[in-house]
Model the fold of this input.
Amino acid sequence: MTSGERSGVPATRLGMTSLTSADIAHLRTGAQFLACTIDPTSTYIYAEMIQSAMVSGQVQLVDVESLDPEDLVVATGMVTQGLFIADMPPVGDEFLSCISAIETALSRKVQAVYSLAAASINGIVPLMVGLQSGLPVVDADPMGRVFPLISQTTLHIGEVGISPIAMMGVTGERAMVEAPNPQRAETLVRSLVTELGGWAATAMYPCTAGELRMHGVRGTVTRMIRVGEILDADESVENKYRRLIELLKAVRISRARVQHIESLSRPTGLGLPAQPSSMTLIDETTGQIIRLEIQNEILLVLVDGAVAAAVPDIVTLLSPEYGTAVSLDDVGVGTVIDVIAIPAAEAWYSAPGLELAGPRAFDIPLDHPRRNA
Amino acid sequence: MRRPGQGRRLDLSTVLARGSLRSTTALYLAPSSTVIDGVMIVPHLDAIRRVPPNTVVVLSTEMGAGGWLVSAALRHAWERRSSAVVVPESRYSSTVIGLAERLDITLLAAGQDPASVALDLAAEIGAARSVVDVQLANLVRALIKESTVTGVLRGISQHLGGILIALEYDGVLVASAGSTGKDDGQVSVDLRSQENSSRGMALTAQIPADEAYDRQFVRTALEMAVPSVQSAWLQVNSREDRDAVPSAALVDLTPFDTAADDKFEDRHRHLMTELGWHRGQRYVAVWIWHDPNEPHRLERTAVLRLLWRRVGIRRPLAEVEEGWLSIIPCEEDQRVAQLQQRVNAKIGRALAEFHLAAGLSRWQAENVTLPAIVREAKIAAECAYLTGPGNILAFGSLNVQAATFFMNQETIQQVAHLALPQLMAAPDREQMISSLASYLDHHSSVSSAAKALNLHRNTLQTRLHRARELGVPLDDPHQLLATHMILHVLNDVTSRTTRHARKDSP
Done:
């Protein structure tokens, strides 16, 4: 199915679709579902802002295939370090300023923007940027999910450069980073974000549409909307599960009751934001003991001590009662949840992919089960 | 009774109660009894993949740092059938204990440094193993004194608590000592053949289904006993070679010409006395026949000599061309029949397994020369072999009929096809052949043959008429013997084919 068929609004040009307010609402739900460990407040705020602004403008979603392969495209997203975006929201000109800085640095006009990640707040930010700038939003991203580090991208695997990176912080201060590789850029950007006040709007990975097409993960904005459509639908939980499993090739690892939550469960590696924690659940049907290791996201799922899923698999939680995404913040001892595993983009299971975003990249001394498969 | 090798195997419950693990706290104790063969300090998860079964896995302080690591370590240890997992005391949580319980693997918390717990346990395991070394040294010392295979087997059995120790050749029990229980398991050690034979010789022990019996200890004991078994084996064989010289020499002296038998003893009187044969003494010869295309092998001769002992005759078995020979003094007629039965009962199955057959000479009241009884036994053995491996025949039961065993059946069938083409082409050929053979067996008596065949006389008469029409020369005295011979062979072939067809049918 094409994006044109998906939305009720007619396509404005081949491969380009105007998103509706309902699409934005579904995208918000999908973005939360694919990153259940991150507080969804900012995502919700952004979604409301976009829906309000759509009265006077349109968000155009474009297939990467329909762009000229030489068109300049750039990823936009928030990089945070300790400060919740909802606590000090952006003024509004941050991303436009970043795009302008990139255009100045490269002496080229940006033709479209794309998401830095296909989940959580960075899954929705480019829509606002598109609305503000009039640029179309590419239906692709460089993660196919969300990772905590800006170096953990399929563009990095494809050796597409991350620089220049334009940044604008909480108080309007700006910075431009030129780094030799994404890892070094990560270090510099993290330090700058701290200095800039806790978060920064960024534009990075400027590349051609051809490069994004070759090395990015395509169709991920549409996927978030599709997931949202399923989860927001007024139908039985079983039906929602069936449709989700069909869409995402997902697996329900277990339906279990939370027994124990523990923070600081293991030493954390330098450079990885957020503290590690873990959650233990009991599957009351089988008696299995489920253990989730969390740091920004659910990195590892053990069932009776055996690995059932591990990063880069996307692990998320659903409410068995309502069939809706469950935010980790809402989970307490006694809550019954479904633990769902979704395969990530295929590039992540290649040797360089697993090296960049496999368990060992998160200080989990395990090989992913697909490492030698 | 203290089980052999018990010193080697530490029992987890004993080590927890009185040994090096008594300082640990049992977070979960698996109800099933567990033995300990080793201990390993695990610095990282991957190391558990190399842990052998029955090992106590001690997690280093770093390994215990992450709760999930302990869970994963428990799982890995369970998959490797570890005896127990020891974790630093301050690190465990109720969910880890829950997982240990679920996997039913013992989980212990060490108050002190896990490395020192591992070292203490390693020392205890080492001490237990030294007890085993002493046990094995005692076993070897005892076996050195034994000079017979049975003596060596008895020695092993006694050191292993009286369990059954057996020496097998190609799956056939050759010698054994000790007794066996009901639900015994087996530990087996191969004895490499000196001639690189494809046939396997193995020393096996039947171990009671009792966890206190250490299979590894039994295996080690068997492996250490192998040189003693081989040494005794060679000793016995070389002794028998020496003792069998008179019998072997007798075969070489046996003339082809039976007419020379009368002069044999006069000609070789001095030599015969030197060899220990007594004039006037009556003997029975036993010949074991083997496939002439299969050459003699030292190990098979040795195996047969061990088996021959089961017959209970203290006479050597000589390796001779076309088999093995034993000459046995025999003063009574009945002894031959008894000997035949005994050979059949004691080694008949083994002879069949090895594709061998045996023949015995006759007992004769008058003084018969040794070459004559050797020839009788040899012919009986060959006849037995021709009727099927494992058979045992006495020449006395054959007499002149022995000659029929040596007829070339293939040639006779070709003659039948050429000389009696109508009979051979007849659709009721099989029925006709059996009827005609029986008729001639009964001296051409229609009544006797019909009775033997369970037929009416008229039916047989009809078949005889038909046979004449088919060209069978039943009425020509000059051709009758040859006809009888051909029918006999054809009847044999038909019966054998029918028997095989029945055997092969589902």
